[in-house]
Write a structure and sequence with these properties.
Helix content: under 10%
Number of helices: 4
Distance between the termini: 49 Å
Shape: flat
Largest sheet: 30 strands, parallel
Length: 776
């Protein structure tokens, strides 16, 4: 081992009692010239020391060393060990005292615990006012893997007890940020003008004024497969998002609390939430989520949250909120048990159930604009407006209100402008003559003259009167084709084809009849073929065809004439006919065979096997992890919320994975034949999450080993034109400009030989070889 004098080597070796101690072998300037060589730093003491001559390397020394060189460095910690920070100090950004500073020019620094158990970095030993744990400065980059960060305290701006990311880039994975605090922003983390990614991690038991867990200000935050729980503060117990974008996927925001707004999340920017749970949080307003910006929520559950003194148990919306394929359940508040809306809210294919409010709006209190479609409100309760209490503008289409309880307006209380069409309002409870189904009544203190427009809707079978109007300033308009029970407003319903005095609409129970929400079937109802279609709907609430038989049915559900085969709550084997069947599995792990015809096959709940077989079929897995096989024909396969597997079979199929991790399989049980395999459209492929599986019995030229990726690198290529794909040396070729995926069976020769195009990623995803799985 030698040091190059010409390159500045300055070895100082000393032998004392058999222990080797040395100063750093090279000066920082020399180390910088050895880019890529000095990349791994092993921390071999848990003490917080800075001493080049003691023969050991502390975490602080490792940070200083990594900061001094431009290459990326990995700092290795011992699994299960605790690294206490004890050197007090402030007003410096070189990591010499106080927090561990990560500076620009030092490359990306990775701090990782080697082993199954996390290493702990604890700043609780910093005396005086204390300090945070990590400070990432502008343009610096830090990765934390398999570590726990605790004991940090930030008493200065901008905050971040565990970590302040000040215009840098931070990735946190398989880690825990717990029991940190701040006086200003972000008890756990402050992301200020930075980029922060959190995956497979836990943010817990932190406290700070805005953002008990995380403050994200003027920044970008991505959270996946993580839990944010037990944090507290003034606003945004879990997350406070200001003028920023936060994206949350497959994560849980639970049991956070604040004295102000947004127990789980307080959003003043843009929030995109998918396949996640917001539960058990509490606040003054917005127990689960308070939105003053733009929020897009899909395939998610918001449940068990509370706004103990004010509005919006689940959601308090002052901005623009969109809710799709989601559940708002068992939340509570003074007003707006499920949702309190003062802005614009759009709710589609969702369920609001079991929400409670002391005053108004068990499901929703609306003072802004609310648009509801294809949704179900059930078992919500309030003093006024069990389902919806409206003083603004509410539009309801293709939706069901049932089993709501309220003294005034069991289903809907309207004191503003409400339009209801193709909906069902039944089995709600309330006081006599106070509109168990619908009550329209002006509020004297607001001076509004309520307007209620009802078209092709069932308001019947409620436990007291169905439709009541109180006061003289109400306007009720029948759009015709309604089925109305009893109440003092029924004489107004004398429009075309209105039916009144019908106390029993002959509906079934609220059950899974297919679709994303529970609905009420109408096998023998006078509503059949008696409705209208003012909004030119193509489907009913469930997604079934809207025009069947001699006319549209009144209400939210259309009776289907095609053969209907429905399973049980158990695991069933269901076989179709040679007609155009609709087969619904309901609960249980079902096996459904479509056979002939153009079938609609719906797995619903459970982990199902769906086989379209002959015909141009539509297969929907929906809930659970399903396997969908198209068979012959040009089929449409839609997964849903679970981990689904797709095999389109022959024909040109459309494959949509939906939420979670999906696998798209290409296998014909024979060598590749473009006529057999067809060209399938994959509409929502997510690189790094979804997988394209190629069976080598079909793609016979591939010699790479089975498993993820291509062990022979030359067998996969990315090009920018179809012409390049034809002459590529690779067997699997992707055109990154149009999303086409080719099997190039003859290599550099013209065209594709026995291969050809077999898939089209319509979202033109940025895939790599790691997005493939080879089998066989």
């Amino acid at each position: 081992m030698t040091g190059n004098v010409n390159r500045g080597g300055n070895w100082n070796l000393e032998l004392i009692f058999g222990q080797l101690k040395s100063a750093l072998a090279f000066t920082p300037e020399v180390r910088a010239s050895y880019a890529g060589v000095l990349a791994d730093i092993v921390v071999n003491t848990t003490d917080d020391v800075v001493d080049d001559s003691d023969g050991v390397t502390s975490l602080r020394e490792a940070i200083i060393e990594a900061n001094s060189t431009p290459e990326d460095d990995t700092i290795q910690l011992t699994a299960g060990a605790t690294y206490d920070l004890t050197i007090s100090g402030s007003d410096e950004d070189a990591a010499a005292t106080g927090d561990l500073d990560i500076v620009a020019g030092g490359g990306e620094i990775t701090v990782i615990s080697q082993g199954d158990e996390k290493a702990v970095i604890d700043a609780g030993g910093i005396e005086g006012l204390g300090d945070r744990v990590f400070h990432v400065l502008s343009d610096a980059a830090l990765q934390l893997e398999n570590v726990e960060i605790t004991g940090g305290f930030a008493n200065d701006s901008p905050g971040g007890g565990a970590l302040n990311n000040d215009s840098g880039t931070v990735n946190i994975s398989n880690s825990t940020i717990s029991s940190n605090s701040a006086d200003i922003l972000g008890g756990g983390i402050n992301n200020f003008f930075g980029t922060l990614k959190i995956s497979n991690s836990t943010i817990s038991d932190n406290s700070g004024p805005n953002g008990g867990g995380i403050d994200n200000s003027f920044a970008t935050l991505n959270i996946s497969n993580s839990t944010i729980t037990g944090n507290s503060g003034t606003n945004g117990g879990g997350i406070f998002n200001l003028a920023s974008t936060v994206t949350i996927t497959n994560s849980t925001i639970s049991d956070n609390s604040v004295d102000g707004n947004g127990g789980g999340i307080d959003n003043l920017g843009t929030a995109n939430i998918t396949n996640s749970t917001i539960s058990g949080n509490s606040a003054n307003s917005g127990g689960g989520f308070r939105n003053s910006g733009t929020a897009n929520i899909s395939n998610s559950n918001i449940s068990g949250n509370s706004a103990y003194l004010n509005d919006g148990g689940g959601i308090d919306n002052l901005g623009t909120a969109s809710l799709t394929n989601s559940n708002i359940s068992e939340n509570s508040a003074y007003n707006g048990g499920g949702i309190n809306n003062l802005g614009t809210a759009t709710i589609n294919n969702s369920t609001l159930s079991g929400n409670v409010t002391f005053l108004a709006g068990g499901g929703i209190r609306n003072s802004g604009t609310t648009n509801v479609s294809n949704s179900t409100f059930s078992t919500n309760s309030a003093n006024s407006g069990g389902g919806i209490y409206n003083t603004g503008t509410t539009n309801v289409i293709n939706s069901t209100f049932t089993e709501g309880i309220s003294n005034y307006g069991g289903g809907i209380y309207n004191a503003g402008t409400t339009s209801i069409s193709n909906s069902t309002i039944t089995a709600n409870g309330g006081q006599q003559n106070q509109g168990s189904g619908i009550l329209t009544k002006a509020l004297d203190e607001l001076g509004f003259n309520p307007t209620t427009i009802v078209t092709s809707t069932i308001v019947s079978g409620n436990f007291s009167t169905d439709f009541d109007s109180i006061g003289t300033n109400n306007t009720i308009i029948s759009g015709g084709n309604n089925l109305i029970g009893i109440g003092n407003a029924i004489n107004i319903f004398n429009g075309d084809n209105d039916q009144t005095g019908v106390t029993d609409p002959l509906l079934g129970n609220l059950v899974d009849n297919g679709g994303q929400t529970l609905t009420l079937p109408l096998p023998n109802s006078p509503a059949i073929d008696a409705g209208s279609n003012p909004n030119s709907l193509t489907t009913d609430q469930r997604g079934e065809p809207r025009f069947v038989g001699e006319g549209v049915d009144i209400g939210a559900v259309e009776l289907q004439n095609s053969p209907q085969i429905t399973g049980t709550p158990e695991s069933d084997i269901l076989n179709g006919t040679n007609e155009n069947d609709t087969i619904t599995g309901l609960a249980g792990n079902d096996t459904i065979n479509g056979r002939g015809g153009d079938d609609q096959i719906i797995g619903s709940r459970g982990n199902d096997f769906l086989y379209g077989k002959e015909g141009n079929d539509t297969l929907q897995g929906r809930l659970g992890s399903d396997r969908l096989f198209g068979g012959n024909g040009d089929d449409s396969l839609l997964g849903g919320q679970g981990r689904d597997r797709f095999n389109g079979g022959t024909g040109d199929d459309t494959l949509t994975g939906g939420a979670s991790i999906d696998r798209f399989i290409f296998n014909t049980n024979d060598e590749f034949d473009s006529d057999d395999i067809g060209i399938d459209d994959i509409t929502d492929f997510v690189p790094g999450q979804d997988i394209i599986l190629l069976d080598k019995s079909t793609f016979t030229e591939i010699t790479s080993d089975s498993g993820t990726g291509f062990s022979v690198n030359a067998e996969f290529d990315i090009v920018t034109s179809d012409a390049e794909a034809e002459t590529s040396e690779a067997f699997i070729v992707y055109n990154s400009n149009n999303g086409k995926l080719f099997y190039n069976a003859n290599g550099t020769e013209a065209e594709f030989g026995s291969g050809g195009e077999f898939a089209n990623l319509t979202n033109i995803a940025s895939i790599s070889k790691d997005d493939f799985l080879l089998r066989g």
